[in-house]
Amino acid sequence: RFAAGIERILDQAGHPKELRVLFNSHGEGKKIIAEYRKLLRQFGQPQVALLGVGPNGHVGYHEPGTAPFRGIHSAILEESSRMQQKETFGSLEETPKTGVTWGIKNFKEMTSIVMASGSSKASPLGRIFDYSISVRDNPVSFISEMPGGRTAYLIADREALSQTPFSRMAFV
Hints:
about 170 residues, 3-stranded parallel β-sheet, two-stranded antiparallel sheet, 5 helices, about 25% helix
């Protein structure tokens, strides 16, 4: 549904068909990874990553415990990640246990836009500001480590920001 919505927005905005949008995928990991790498060779690195964050701190399907230097890879999804997606797939049993995702290495090479809403995202967003917690343990923390010339944006509601230094700011 998310992919179809983004494609519809891009069509309405008049973006050329050459614009490629790559989404987290389910299915045969090696085949999907090969397709992604072929598109990278053909079109180059994407310029923007639009990411969601999960209650466990994952971005895309880059789950906690995964080495931050990983690029595109096949991931075993944590149960909390699957629970977050179960309504999309109809039930937990139908929700995939694996997926293909871009890695933190890739996200640091793009302008990254991370979106979060709801109190279930407060803990991982709060941990971004605890520098004793590594990106390996809280993948969304990569936004505090962007290399020179690259930018990350965080778009979040009041509930998601409730455990961050921004929780005391006035919101309009």
